[in-house]
Design brief:
The chain is of the alpha/beta class. The chain contains four helices and six strands. A six-stranded mixed sheet has the order 1-2-3-4-5-6, sandwiched between helices. The protein is globular.
Length: 173
């Protein structure tokens, strides 16, 4: 910290204390995209459990009777690769390791859920916000389509990227 009070950490305009406060306020549950999807599905008559600790990865929304669950991934924290997931310029090595570990944990959780017979839908944050966002009603319709078709084992909903968007019926990787 310099005498003027500004951060000496190149690239960061906040002091370490200010950065710590900002980071401490980032939520891991009850995020805006999660609440939007939960409320819409509830309004359509779906009932579910939240953040089930018994399941690998602690899924956001669980439908036990349908043996299905929805993971709502923040693009930054899960290193999606879209415009919302840029790696910070400061402490680059730390962030690259952190995000790589998050991806590895996600992969282990998906494998465990699949082996246990769960159907998994991943909804990426960019599907609901940012320059590639889709119509929220279309996202909810895609969630409902997934829930009503047991033959769909894994699916992904993401924002517009390279001209592709919507519900993909392929392995989320």
């Amino acid at each position: 910290m310099s005498e003027g009070g500004e951060s000496t950490n190149s690239g960061d305009v906040l002091t370490p204390e200010q950065r710590s406060l900002c980071m401490s306020r980032i939520r891991s549950r009850d995020t805006k995209p999660e609440i939007l999807i939960r409320r819409a599905l509830f309004a359509r008559g779906y009932r579910y459990r939240l953040h089930d600790r018994k399941r690998p990865g602690r899924p956001d929304i669980v439908f036990p009777g349908r043996r299905a669950l929805i993971l709502i991934h923040g693009c930054f924290w899960h290193a999606h690769g879209c415009h919302l997931s840029a790696t910070p310029a400061t402490r680059r090595e730390f962030w690259e390791n952190k995000l790589r570990e998050n991806r590895a944990r996600d992969s282990r959780a998906l494998s465990a859920l699949s082996l246990a017979g769960w159907r998994v839908l991943i909804v990426w944050e960019c599907a609901l916000r940012g320059k590639g966002r889709q119509d929220p009603v279309a996202v909810i319709d895609a969630c409902e389509r997934f829930l009503n078709h047991p033959e769909m084992r894994e699916a992904v909903i993401e924002g517009w990227r390279s001209g592709v968007a919507g519900l993909r019926l392929e392995s989320p990787s």
